[in-house]
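== Fold encoding ==
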Amino acid sequence: MCWGMAYRVDAARTAEVLEILDNRETGGYRRLSVDISLMPAGAANAGSGGVSGVTSGAASAAASAVASNAMPAVTVEGLIYIAEADNANYLGPMSDEEIAFVVRRAQGLSGANREYVLRLHQALVDIGTYDPHVAALVRLLGD
C-alpha cells in the first residue's frame, strides 16, 4: 500500500501535464493506470494514525467516521510512475546507510536527490503519513 496525494488534472491540460511528468520521470520509470482510493479530507491514515489534510476538530470526527466505515474511500482511475528491478537505474537491495550515501551524491533533471527525499518526508508529514524508511533516510541525510 502506498499513501500520498492525488491530483485532478483539467482534461484540456492532460497532454501538457503528461509531457512534463513523462520528461521528469525519464530515469526509467514506467507509467501505469491503476485504481486509487481517495480518502475523504481529514481521514485518518491507517498506516500512521495521522490526519490527512485537515487539522481542525472536524478532522477527528472525520477520522472516526472513516474508521467506522461511515465514510468509505472513493475509487478512481489514476496514473502512477513505478521503477522496476529491470530499470537501468535500479541499484538492488541496499541498507538505509547505503541508500543515503547514494542519495547525497545523486542529481536528476529535477534537482538533488537529497532535496527530493527531504521534501517527500515533509509532504508525507503534511498529509499525516509516517513512512519509517523515508524518516530513516532523512535522519541519515541530516540537515
The first strand starts at residue 30 and ends at 38.
